[in-house]
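Kindly review both lines to help learners:
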Amino acid sequence: MSDKFLRVIVVGGGAAGFFGAIAAAKAHPQTRITLLEAGRELLAKVRISGGGRCNVTHACFDPGILVQNYPRGGKALRGAFTRFQPRDTVEWFASHGIKLKTEADGRMFPTTDDSATIVNSLIQAAKDAGVEICTGVAAVSIKRLIPDFAPPKPLQIEAELADKLSVSDRFPISNPHSPSFEIELRSGEKLKGDRILLATGSSPSGFKWAQNLGHTIQPPVPSLFTFNISDIRLQDLAGVSVGNVRVQLPAAKLEQTGPILITHWGLSGPAVLKLSAWGARFLHECGYQTSLLINWLPQYNPDVLRQQLLAVKSQLSRRSIATSCPLPIPRRLWEHLTVAVGIDSEKRWSELSNKSLNQLIQELSQGEYKIKGKGAFKEEFVTCGGVNLKEVDFKTMESRCCPGLYFAGEILDIDGVTGGFNFQSAWTTAWLAGQAIGK
């Protein structure tokens, strides 16, 4: 291989690894790209995402609004999204023959409703770009090579100016054609490269390598999960969904509003998943044991709710309370909530006492439930935590601690709520890294 070729090794065969490798190969034809995947299957997470349909991105094309869907990393991504955002993702896949469609909630999927469409397009694009793809090749260590000569000291610059300069400007490399890194494989073979792109997702190995190369790791903890709740009020209601509910973690002063789904183990649905994401670290610290407040009717304030129920008491006085639900919630849920406040199933509206009315209003607008643990969100697994974002230049995704080292995807301390946002941060950070990696 001629010295004119820059040698780049991408570690991780997921969405970010592939997208970064393709971007680097297309932007810098004189760069030789090798992608290493420890497993035998490429893009495994892409294959199972979105129930096998692959939620590629979200139809939110305003970077200022888009960043609001990231509990961690939104500020760092603000500028990044002005350079590569969901509109660019849609155009990229369209240029590779893949059309995306938008569903009512903004999620975007391939028109085939098959994740294999996305997987195959990425693999083919990588091959067409000349990326060398290696599966079943596990790295065991990554180290930066120390040249025989003393490297120049970093430029002495003002702190305010440092953030405006690229890493290579601040840490000039004397000989860009000398390999900068050595990767040892499980087989014992050693690979040398000028640049490394770490796209290892939430793999502990990736965090260890980044730390060994000078980075601080925010401890990874689960994000995007369901709540385990054992409560008689939810018993036998599995499958019941409510379109607009407010859920709160009072101890953390966090809340989310949206659809929820009652399950065999507790609660799921978009509002719960979003709350789990924003409260991921708090929930981890309390061992997933805390109080949850539920407002089943956030569109009604307590006074309006009281007037609504009193009107029903007056107009439908002879009807049974339990079997005549006057509010926009599922009838079975209404029945369970009336029983929970001690209203007999045969009691008529005319017999509703003020005490029972107050208890019912409290149950509907501020019912307290105990979270006893966390469940999973389908087959997907998202973490919060990873490489400290202050240690990465978000113009290029290059390390501020280790010149020649780049990051993309979930290895960074970035996570989004459900809806295609995690893939979008992967596409964006990978594209930025790929554009910069050969310069």
Residues 99 and 110 are 6 Å apart (CA to CA). The chain has a mean pLDDT of 91. The two ends are 19 Å apart (CA to CA). The longest strand covers residues 241-249.
